């Protein structure tokens, strides 16, 4: 009669039998089988006893139905638990190494959770990464694209990984509504993720999409910001099937209204769906998304000060609009299919493929003032830009577990391929004069028309890595190597082939973790790992190798660190050195090549968790020195690299009220030290600190869990230069912004 029972009754029966078996046996897994509906109690008892003798199993079966234990189901489906406090996850995706416990990982990585995104009302990736002391943004708030730096090295918006794969994340801005985690790996990562399309070197940001949880979810959020931007977000999750093997997660969002830039408005429409299937041996995940952003009325500004050798003028208001009337549009459509199959209990095969189509037009990057003087006067131009990117990314591999003597191995063999076709065209306006404090209406460039194909890039690689574990995982050693092939073609506007090259490079890595004490609460680690970037095309007409495409170059990192897990509260401390090559024209040989070197050294401290029952902490401090150690004819040698402050710090607290249930408060401070505007080290922008604050109240409305959130960013409405990008350009921080939302679970 078992097959006639309702699902919930079956679930209760399974739980009761499982509990009985656990009481009878110390084993964590078990199996039981019922032969017929009329089997006697004695036969059932015998079957249970037989099952209790099995070892190393995490499943039981009833009439052929396989039911994984909760622990094994979460492990196989990639579900990651949160650390105490819920702001950071216990595990993170390490590319070919898969989901790994952060305390077993010989790298500095932080995984911010969906709870952090929701509680802070993070609208963009920049809002999430504002929690990280190693990350700073190199585009102004409200810009059409979000670029940033990690460990003092630039990473642009095209370098975001989606579920561990490059080339597929939405361009320009990454929506937060469909994100389960935002993972930040500090340092180069060519072995783990392969070479990114633009060669990101300071670190990797990997965003993980939401999947359906075990419990049904219907969550509606309405939100409002102080700039009259209104929005609504629906998050819907369901699981289906007798064993809930099918899952669906839908996220839909719409925002419209003014932004933090004066007279600028933004309308955004976003939708995504995640479908997954979870069986004993086979798992599959399908993600699809569409995102459209329309900016009208202007753009945030970035300011050129390369000609200044003295002090920089004070920053203008954070809502300054230098380009009134400028409009822009960005469209992203993408899909991704991931799958894995357990060939046996120790061998898993996986295959992933995805597609992204990114189109943009308008004043996307042409938002800079040039030759600004000490009074804020400048001459400038605007640039109307059209472009597109079509990308197909694929990956396949095998993961094998085996033992040799006293050593456990987890070996992975991976092959990847990314095909990217892109096109771009821009048209400049006439020059005009203005002032950053009293901007005039700019001369806007006209539409240049459809963008022709300008490049094709194919990145293929094969990687092999082995994680060796000794003495009950007290010691772990990771050895790996990746062979990367870069095939690049450039085209003229006529469609004719301009330049092409096909080169390869090998990037090894070695890392280890030691847990010296019996409770394994402390992890000591070290790593050597490399990053890889495509060589640039020699554009200096004075060079005898003009037009040549240089070979891919490697950025090399050495790092040591310690991680301490106190159960409810964690700390990590790391010391690193990164050496990044740079190219210049040798005045003796007249050859342009990668002979220069930038060296970044630093110390990072990160902390997170619960420091008491009612107080949660999230933050960190980074001390860093970036220097030019090899330059053309010694020019600027020994100078500090522009945009690399000595000190960066973030610290945030959440306090639960002791008198009002469901009420909590939060506060955060973000500090960035002074930094040079250019590599000449003639002018600096001052240090700055920004304060944020907020309140959250959880209650129930008509029996439905409801959360009210109110946050204020830049509480004191400070005007400040937030950082630098390229050589000689500055960005401004956003002004005071209010965020109000109501979330209800139906």
Written account of the structure:
The chain folds into two domains: 2-68, no CATH class; 209-382 and 397-745, Maltoporin, Chain A, CATH 2.40.170.20. A hairpin with a 5-residue loop joins strand 26 (475-491) and strand 27. The chain has a 22-stranded antiparallel barrel. Strands 24-21-20-17-40-39 form a six-stranded mixed β-sheet, with no helix packed on it. Strands 5-10-11-9 form a four-stranded mixed β-sheet. By secondary structure, the protein is mainly beta. It is built from six helices and 41 strands.
Tell me briefly what this model is.
Helices cover 7% and strands 54% of the residues. It is mostly beta strands.
Short key terms for the protein model shown above:
746 residues, Maltoporin, Chain A, 22-stranded antiparallel β-barrel, 41 strands, 7% helix, globular, disordered N terminus
Give the low-confidence spans: 1-71
CATH architecture of the largest domain: Beta Barrel
* Helical content (DSSP H or I, runs of 4+): under 10%
| Annotated CATH homologous superfamily of the largest domain | TonB-dependent receptor, beta-barrel domain
Q: Please, what is the average pLDDT?
A: 87
Oligomer: single chain
Question: What's the structural blueprint in terms of helices and strands?
Answer:
Layout: H1 7-24, H2 41-52, E1 59-62, E2 65-68, H3 70-77, E3 91-93, E4 99-101, E5 109-113, H4 114-119, H5 125-129, E6 135-137, E7 148-150, E8 153-155, E9 161-162, E10 179-186, H6 190-193, E11 203-209, E12 217-225, E13 230-240, E14 246-258, E15 265-278, E16 282-296, E17 302-304, E18 328-344, E19 347-366, E20 368-370, E21 377-380, E22 383-404, E23 407-428, E24 432-435, E25 453-470, E26 475-491, E27 497-514, E28 522-533, E29 553-565, E30 569-585, E31 592-612, E32 615-630, E33 647-656, E34 663-672, E35 675-676, E36 684-685, E37 688-701, E38 704-713, E39 721-725, E40 729-732, E41 737-745
Parallel strand pairs: 9-11, 17-20
Antiparallel strand pairs: 1-2, 3-4, 5-10, 6-7, 7-8, 10-11, 12-13, 12-41, 13-14, 14-15, 15-16, 16-18, 17-40, 18-19, 19-22, 20-21, 21-24, 22-23, 23-25, 25-26, 26-27, 27-28, 28-29, 29-30, 30-31, 31-32, 32-33, 33-34, 34-37, 35-36, 37-38, 38-41, 39-40
């Amino acid at each position: 009669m078992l097959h006639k029972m309702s699902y919930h009754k079956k679930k209760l029966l399974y739980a009761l039998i499982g509990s009985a078996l656990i009481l009878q046996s110390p084993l964590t897994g078990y199996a039981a089988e019922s032969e017929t509906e009329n089997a006697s109690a004695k036969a059932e008892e015998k079957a249970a006893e037989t099952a209790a003798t099995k070892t190393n199993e995490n499943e039981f079966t009833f009439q052929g139905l396989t039911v994984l234990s909760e622990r094994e189901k979460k492990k196989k489906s990639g579900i990651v638990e949160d650390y105490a406090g819920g702001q950071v996850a216990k595990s993170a995706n390490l590319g070919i190494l898969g989901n790994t416990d952060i305390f077993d990982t010989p790298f500095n990585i932080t995984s911010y959770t969906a709870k952090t995104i929701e509680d802070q009302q993070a609208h963009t990736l920049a809002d999430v990464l504002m929690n990280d002391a190693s990350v700073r943004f190199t585009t102004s708030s409200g810009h059409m694209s979000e670029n940033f730096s990690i460990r003092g090295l630039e990473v642009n918006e095209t370098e975001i990984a989606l579920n561990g794969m490059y080339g597929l994340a939405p361009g320009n801005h990454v929506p937060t509504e469909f994100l389960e985690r935002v993972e930040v790996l500090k340092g180069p990562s060519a072995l783990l993720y392969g070479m990114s399309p633009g060669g990101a070197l300071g670190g990797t940001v990997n965003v993980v999409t939401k999947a359906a949880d075990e419990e049904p979810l219907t969550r509606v959020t309405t939100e409002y910001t102080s700039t009259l931007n209104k929005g609504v977000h629906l998050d819907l999750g369901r699981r289906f099937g007798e064993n809930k093997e099918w899952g669906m997660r839908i996220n839909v969002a719409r925002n419209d209204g003014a932004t933090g830039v004066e007279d600028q408005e933004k309308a955004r429409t976003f939708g995504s769906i995640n479908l997954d299937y979870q069986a004993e041996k086979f798992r599959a995940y399908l993600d699809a998304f569409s995102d459209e952003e329309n900016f009208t009325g202007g753009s945030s500004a970035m300011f050129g000060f390369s000609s200044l050798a003295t002090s920089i003028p004070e920053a203008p208001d954070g809502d300054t609009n230098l380009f009134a009337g400028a409009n822009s549009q960005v469209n992203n459509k993408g899909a991704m299919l991931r799958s894995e199959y357990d060939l046996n209990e120790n061998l898993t095969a996986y295959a992933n493929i995805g597609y992204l189509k990114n189109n943009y037009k308008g004043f996307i990057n042409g938002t800079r003032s040039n030759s600004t003087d000490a009074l804020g006067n400048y001459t400038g131009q605007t640039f109307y830009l059209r472009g597109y990117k079509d990308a197909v990314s694929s990956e396949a591999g095998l993961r094998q577990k085996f033992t040799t003597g006293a050593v456990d191995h987890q070996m992975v063999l991976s092959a990847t391929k990314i095909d990217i076709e892109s096109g771009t065209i821009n048209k400049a306006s006439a020059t005009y004069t203005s002032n950053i404090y009293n901007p005039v209406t700019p001369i806007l460039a006209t539409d240049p028309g459809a963008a022709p194909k300008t490049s094709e890039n194919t990145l293929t690689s094969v990687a092999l890595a082995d994680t060796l574990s000794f003495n009950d995982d007290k010691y772990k050693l990771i050895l790996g190597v990746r062979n990367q092939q870069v095939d690049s073609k450039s085209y003229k506007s006529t469609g004719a082939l301009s330049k092409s090259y096909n080169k390869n490079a090998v990037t090894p890595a070695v890392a280890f973790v030691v847990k010296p004490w019996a409770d394994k609460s402390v992890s000591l680690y070290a790593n050597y790992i490399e990053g890889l970037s495509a060589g640039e095309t020699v554009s200096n007409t004075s060079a005898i190798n003009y037009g040549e495409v240089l070979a891919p170059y490697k950025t090399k990192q050495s790092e040591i660190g310690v991680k301490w897990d106190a159960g409810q509260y964690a700390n990590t401390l790391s010391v690193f050195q990164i050496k990044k090559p740079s190219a210049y024209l040798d005045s003796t040989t007249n050859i342009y090549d990668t002979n220069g070197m930038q060296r970044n050294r630093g110390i990072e401290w990160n902390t997170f968790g619960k420091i008491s029952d009612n107080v949660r902490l999230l933050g960190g401090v980074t001390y860093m020195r970036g220097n030019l150690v090899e330059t053309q004819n010694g020019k600027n040698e020994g100078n500090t690299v522009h945009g690399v402050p000595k000190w960066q710090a973030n610290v945030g607290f959440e306090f639960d009220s002791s008198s009002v249930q469901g009420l909590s408060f939060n506060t955060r401070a973000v500090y960035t030290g002074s930094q040079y505007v250019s590599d000449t080290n003639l002018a600096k922008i001052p240090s700055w600190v920004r304060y944020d604050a907020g309140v959250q109240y959880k209650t129930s409305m008509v029996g439905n869990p409801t959360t009210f959130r109110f946050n204020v960013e830049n509480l004191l409405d400070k005007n400040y230069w937030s950082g630098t990008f390229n050589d000689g350009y500055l960005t401004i921080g956003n002004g005071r912004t209010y965020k109000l939302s109501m979330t209800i679970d139906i």
